[in-house]
């Protein structure tokens, strides 16, 4: 049975959006970057950004108080003045929030939640609560981009969380993984972007459809086996969207994680697979990754599964915004990746 998800109201210009530190409290060390992100978000989308009560209390406090981070999420959900929720930055310990998260609040107060990396934990809890969530840029990353938000990023956010219409993803013409220090004097210095080699179809010939689910593989590995791991029904018939972080896991490790997915029956019932451009992979590692993906799918009897790779989301820039829970279509013949239904609803729906 195909799962169904509540679509939160679309965000509109003038909306108030809460900024949350659900993992790292690093933001207090780069407040100039935070302020630049607020300015750029206001200019691009018209949102008013307000910090959650504990979001700016610093690394030490937030590390010691995972419940305070969960409380911020609950505050944003229950506050009628807050229209949406934005992750400030990732980290490595959102899994510690699981004992404190209230899925019923998520279900009763569905709102746009946008983030990636360690926010994968929270994105999955929205899906477990039956609410669409949005894998996309955090406040301190692409939304506070050096020299301004990239047009591809702004378009991706608008089409995913500000419109209820279907849309087709487009490959970015250029990309980067350059690390430019987050210093005040460099904030208006654009990073170097190189021409993109485009997306790659690894296998599959027939079009397929399914709801989107996934996130950062390293974070999914931390979540795997915990009470926060999505139930089998949430994986069945899905288009898996998976990416890797700046930890740069070797190709064989990605293969091992996918073997776990096969052991759970996830690959056997998947409708498709979309892989992000892997961060800091030289060409030989990319080919090794593709080899492992094909190998594991062959082991799982899924040589028919459509697989699209090198897609613009995750830990390289610019990144698309993926409406998790929304139904999508992969068409290897047409070479397209499209969302068939918006992940949000118009406020008056």
From TrEMBL:
Q: Which keywords appear in this protein's UniProt record, sorted alphabetically?
A: Hydrolase
Give residue ranges for domain LD-carboxypeptidase C-terminal. 209-330
Protein origin, superkingdom: Bacteria
Q: Which Pfam families match?
A: Peptidase_S66, Peptidase_S66C
**Tagged with keyword Hydrolase:** yes
Q: Does the keyword Hydrolase apply?
A: yes
InterPro entries, per database record: Carboxypeptidase_A_C_sf, Class_I_gatase-like, LdcA_N, Peptidase_S66_N, Peptidase_S66C, S66_fam
Domain LD-carboxypeptidase N-terminal span(s) in chain numbering: 17-136
By sequence similarity, the record places it as follows: Belongs to the peptidase S66 family.
Protein name per Swiss-Prot or TrEMBL? LD-carboxypeptidase
């Amino acid at each position: 049975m195909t799962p169904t998800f509540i679509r939160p109201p679309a965000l509109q210009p003038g909306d108030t959006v809460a900024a949350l530190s659900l993992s790292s409290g690093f933001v207090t060390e780069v407040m100039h970057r935070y302020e630049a992100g607020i300015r750029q978000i206001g200019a691009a989308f018209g949102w008013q950004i307000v910090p959650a009560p504990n979001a700016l209390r610093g690394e030490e406090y937030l590390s010691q108080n995972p419940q305070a981070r969960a409380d911020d999420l609950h505050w944003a959900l229950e506050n009628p003045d807050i229209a949406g929720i934005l992750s400030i930055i990732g980290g490595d310990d959102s899994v510690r929030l699981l004992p404190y998260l209230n899925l019923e609040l998520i279900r009763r107060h569905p709102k746009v939640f946008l983030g990636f990396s360690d926010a994968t934990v929270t994105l999955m809890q929205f899906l477990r609560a039956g609410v669409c969530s949005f894998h996309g840029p955090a406040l301190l990353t692409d939304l506070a981009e050096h020299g301004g938000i990239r047009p591809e990023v702004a378009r991706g956010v608008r089409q995913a969380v500000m419109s209820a219409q279907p849309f087709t993803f487009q490959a970015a013409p250029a990309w980067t993984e350059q690390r430019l220090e987050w210093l005040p004097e460099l904030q208006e210095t654009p990073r170097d972007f190189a021409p993109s080699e485009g997306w790659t179809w690894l296998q599959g010939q027939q079009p397929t459809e399914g709801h989107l689910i996934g996130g950062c593989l390293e974070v999914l590995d931390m979540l795997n086996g915990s009470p926060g791991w999505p139930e089998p029904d949430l994986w069945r018939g899905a288009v898996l969207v998976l990416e890797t972080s700046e930890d740069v896991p070797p190709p064989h490790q990605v293969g091992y994680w996918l073997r776990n997915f096969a052991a759970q029956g996830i690959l056997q019932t998947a409708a498709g697979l979309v892989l992000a451009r892997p961060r800091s992979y030289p060409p030989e590692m990319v080919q090794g990754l593709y080899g492992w993906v094909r190998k594991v799918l062959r082991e799982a009897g899924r040589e028919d599964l459509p697989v699209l790779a090198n897609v613009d989301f995750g830990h390289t820039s610019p990144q698309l915004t993926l409406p998790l829970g929304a139904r999508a279509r992969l068409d290897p013949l047409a070479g397209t990746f499209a969302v068939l239904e918006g992940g949000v609803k118009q406020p008056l729906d």
